[in-house]
Amino acid sequence: MTYDPSQDGAQMDFRRRMSYGDYLQVDQILSAQHPLSSAHDEMLFIIQHQTSELWMKLALYEIAAARRMIATDQPHEAMKMLSRVARIFEQLNSAWDVLRTMTPSEYTRFRDDLGQSSGFQSWQYRLIEYAVGNRNQAMLKPHEHRPDILARLEAELALPSLYDEVLRWLARSGLPVPADVLNRDQRQAWTANEAVLGVWKIVYQSPSTHWSAYELAEKLVDFEDYFRRWRFNHVTTVERVIGFKRGTGGTAGINYLKRMLDTVLFPELWQVRTEL
Prior knowledge:
The chain is an all-alpha fold. It has helices at residues 20-24, 26-30, 42-71, 75-99, 104-108, 123-132, 147-157, 162-172, 179-182, 194-205, 211-242, 254-260, 267-275. The chain is built from 13 helices and no strands. Helix 3 packs antiparallel against helix 4 and helix 6 packs parallel to helix 7. The chain is globular.
């Protein structure tokens, strides 16, 4: 039997109404794929990276909101947002599984068409790193050709990172975060601090006394856990597809990506496990 949704009240005439496609601007999204070669797999490559950029946009939106919540002493609201960021990176991890269906032979059919473009030039990825505390100012250079993007990155560096805001909140909560940590040059990348490790040790040794701080710490660890997996999956996918060739952007390829695996966003939260 043929089913007619209008019999159950479904709207079928959108000549004067906003439709699904109108609301989501689907036409604009679906018209943004422009392969530069005739290679079948280039469409996969483009959509993989475009969808990753959309997920990163949402991650930035949630990280910014979480930071505002922490700055205004609303850690529980921030935890919900950080949980969402971790799930976003779970989605980003799954995307590598799709890209890994492309073989080295298939990638070589269009790799030269990419020119010098490379994923390490993603300004949204750089914003995520800056927002959470990995503030490598050398990575401003690839964006100097775009004053608008450079301004966004510089504006992020002028703000306390997510981790800085967490430490400030711990201090307001009565925990002994040193003044030199609270007043540090926030444009600089975070480096492991023994005094901060001591603060987290207090929290982890008595979770029931510092429950909100304990919960927030675990949300940060959840996020970094998925973030590390994303980086590792990136390395594995690149090695599977191009081996040890140099990256299109001029990096050392796999060797560059492997060095990035050593970066720890919240080092004291990992070190404290050894201290307990």
